[in-house]
Amino acid sequence: MPALHLLHIDASARPGVSGIHPHGSHTRRLTRHLVDRWRAVRPADRVIHRDLSREPPSPVTAEWIAAAFTPPERRDAGMNAYLAESDRLIEELRRADLVVIGVPMYNFGVPATLKAWIDNVVRVGATFGFDRARAEGPYWPMLPAGKRLVILSSRGDAGYDPGGRLESLNLVERSITMPMSYVGLTETYCIAIEYDEFADDRLSASIAKAEGAVDALVQKLTAEPVEVSPGTMSDEVATP
Ligand SMILES: Cc1cc2nc3c(=O)[nH]c(=O)nc-3n(C[C@H](O)[C@H](O)[C@H](O)COP(=O)(O)O)c2cc1C
């Protein structure tokens, strides 16, 4: 089987890792745990790490919109320059077979840096198509099929999972799965740590449970045959 590409994204503003650094990030702990476990099973796979807190993607601007909505053949050099960052982020996503996103809950939603990443990679004519006259419907995903998405989250309170007391307040997972399914990532797995604000035994139990769930997920995903898509290539990928 050819080497797979993992895109490892962290969005926590906390640079440290929980369990290693004081006041470290739980989502960084979970993404690192997943990648370490994955590498233990499949050491030849390639990992790109994108730290959205260290290198925040640019937000959408008027110039970006004008460039993105101009057909590629009519773009001038300035427009291409406005889209260069988006092009780079899209290329990383296009190559990825597995996308792992570490995402803290900030005010019930995702950090602004992750929203900026989503806005850069969900782009008309690049990752989804739009045609008013299309009989099957005006939108279609343009990324290669077969990618898998893992969302690893953490929250201060508890009860945000489906069926939980605070489920209706949780805007995190849906605000990622919705736009990602739009560009073609429909196979999604979500695992979260809760009780960070309480910092008691419930937090320790939640961390242990989440890490166990990550272990089981890695076992499942590495055991399954992977549909080789055009995103699976054997060439070298530069880390940013
Ligand atoms: C700016 C900010 C906003 C937060 N908003 C919420 C919230 O709405 N609900 C919640 O349960 N926890 C909230 N928290 C707590 C975080 O979700 C929690 O600390 C989580 O572990 C952060 O992820 P990290 O450990 O990867 O940094 C917030 C924390 C920060 C810093």
TrEMBL record:
<dbReference type="InterPro" id="IPR029039">
    <property type="entry name" value="Flavoprotein-like_sf"/>
</dbReference>
<dbReference type="GO" id="GO:0016655">
    <property type="term" value="F:oxidoreductase activity, acting on NAD(P)H, quinone or similar compound as acceptor"/>
</dbReference>
<dbReference type="GO" id="GO:0016652">
    <property type="term" value="F:oxidoreductase activity, acting on NAD(P)H as acceptor"/>
</dbReference>
<comment type="function">
    <text>Quinone reductase that provides resistance to thiol-specific stress caused by electrophilic quinones.</text>
</comment>
<dbReference type="InterPro" id="IPR023048">
    <property type="entry name" value="NADH:quinone_OxRdtase_FMN_depd"/>
</dbReference>
<protein>
    <recommendedName>
        <fullName>FMN dependent NADH:quinone oxidoreductase</fullName>
        <ecNumber>1.6.5.-</ecNumber>
        <ecNumber>1.7.1.17</ecNumber>
    </recommendedName>
</protein>
<keyword id="KW-0285">Flavoprotein</keyword>
<feature type="domain" description="Flavodoxin-like fold">
    <location>
        <begin position="21"/>
        <end position="209"/>
    </location>
</feature>
<dbReference type="InterPro" id="IPR050104">
    <property type="entry name" value="FMN-dep_NADH:Q_OxRdtase_AzoR1"/>
</dbReference>
<keyword id="KW-0560">Oxidoreductase</keyword>
<comment type="function">
    <text>Also exhibits azoreductase activity. Catalyzes the reductive cleavage of the azo bond in aromatic azo compounds to the corresponding amines.</text>
</comment>
<feature type="binding site">
    <location>
        <position position="12"/>
    </location>
    <ligand>
        <name>FMN</name>
    </ligand>
</feature>
<dbReference type="GO" id="GO:0010181">
    <property type="term" value="F:FMN binding"/>
</dbReference>
<dbReference type="GO" id="GO:0009055">
    <property type="term" value="F:electron transfer activity"/>
</dbReference>
<dbReference type="Pfam" id="PF02525">
    <property type="entry name" value="Flavodoxin_2"/>
</dbReference>
<dbReference type="InterPro" id="IPR003680">
    <property type="entry name" value="Flavodoxin_fold"/>
</dbReference>
<feature type="binding site">
    <location>
        <begin position="105"/>
        <end position="108"/>
    </location>
    <ligand>
        <name>FMN</name>
    </ligand>
</feature>
<keyword id="KW-0288">FMN</keyword>
<comment type="similarity">
    <text>Belongs to the azoreductase type 1 family.</text>
</comment>
<comment type="subunit">
    <text>Homodimer.</text>
</comment>
<keyword id="KW-0520">NAD</keyword>
